[in-house]
Amino acid sequence: MGKLQSKFRKRSELYRASQEEKVDNSCDSQVLQYEPAHNGSINTVTNLSPDLCVSGGSDQAVVVYDWKQGRMCQSFQGHNREVTKVVCYPGSTWIFSGSRDKTVLMWDLNQGDEPIQEFCGHELVVNGIAISPDGRKLCTGSRDNWMCLWDIESAKCEQRQNVSRNLVTHVCWVPASSSVVQTSEDKTIRVWDSRTWQVTNTFPAKQYIQTHCDVSPNGNYLVSSSNGFGGQGCEATLWDLRQPGCKVVEYRGHLQTTACCMFLPVSCGGTARVATSSHDSSIKIWDQNTAVCLGTLPLDGAGPLVSLVPSDSTTLLCASFNSGLHHVQVEWGSQQAQGPGNDSGGAGNLDIRVVARF
Q: Which residues of the chain have pLDDT under 70?
């Protein structure tokens, strides 16, 4: 892969925080304040390894951060507009970033400061990126109605398909499968076959824009989230991918757009759970099967919470518009929360709290 010429702006020395950690005493529990990962709002966060996360934001940077040690590892600068999505290939040091500059850049944490590959061809902002399970193909989706399939090694676009009004909001690859799922501003969820690059299933349209989606590790279930306001819409929906279009349950309780939804890792003998984050500045955790809200964490003043990723069964990382990235700890008591009325972070036997910000 040939390297691309790109300006790199180093925001801190490698593997060194620019300031000593501070403690924020504004909450009941102390919150560590580390060096900020970005200047401005953060649009997306994902995992690179058990210790490292990758984020992108309005400052056009792609940042690798050691969230356990509270220090920035690397800041890549190659986009000329804000970064909208980042994804990583599991078990590697590959990072892919999409942007409002209509491109996707590929980075390698071990190969210097410049992108090692560029994927150009979209006409509007790239909102969806997904990597095939074998690490050979890249799927991208945009507000330009195009879904594209690329060969990662050559950066050649091998398949393109335009679907009218399909303003793509998110894309995810079904594990151990040739299927790709995408959400859209036309309120529809589509399933693509990456072998033919044709839509194989279309779910019944929801009432509001579908903002995000995630597929369970076993590939059986899909969760999608909805736009909304004043408590109308704002839900997440669990679907059975084995019966396309079959709605299982809905998770209702957010007051504004639910921007992100994720399946949480299940500890041994634990309950299957879903986490959501919203423009109402809250994170909610739900029982996957019953849709009972097990706990809510309000992050007052954080603004819209637009991206969420679990690092393990007790750790979440959450991206906000106003207050950076949040390291959230989830701790269970001896019993499950009882009933839908258990809706606050400290209620019942589920404790959700912020332990650090950066």
A: 1-29, 268-269, 333-348
Enter the pTM of the model.
0.89
Asked if residue 331 is part of any domain, the answer here is yes
pLDDT at 97: 98
Q: Say if 323 falls within a structural domain.
A: yes
Element (H, E) at 108: strand 104-108
Gap between the Cα atoms of 330 and 303, Å rounded: 21
Alpha carbon distance 267, 313 (integer Å):
6
- Are 77 and 6 in contact by the 8 Å Cβ rule? The answer is yes
The CA angle 134-137-141, to the nearest 5 degrees, is: 130
Cβ neighbour number for residue 210 with a 10 Å cutoff: 24
Determine the residue type at 93: T
CA distance 304 to 257: 9
What number of residues does the chain have? Answer: 358
| 41-57 core/surface letters (b: 16 or more CB in 10 A; e: else) | bbbbbbbbbeebbbbbb
Predicted pLDDT at 269: 64
Residue 215 belongs to what domain range?
208-358
What total number of domains does the chain contain? 1
Nearest to 163 by CA among 139, 138, 182, 137: 182
Q: Residues with Cβ < 8 Å from 232, sequence gap 6 or more?
A: 208
Is 279 within the bounds of a domain? yes
Q: Whole-angstrom Cα distance, residue 324 to residue 357?
A: 7
What CATH number corresponds to the domain at position 258?
A: 2.130.10.10
Rounded Cα distance between 81 and 59, Å, is: 8
Determine contact, residues 240/264, Cβ cutoff 8 Å.
no
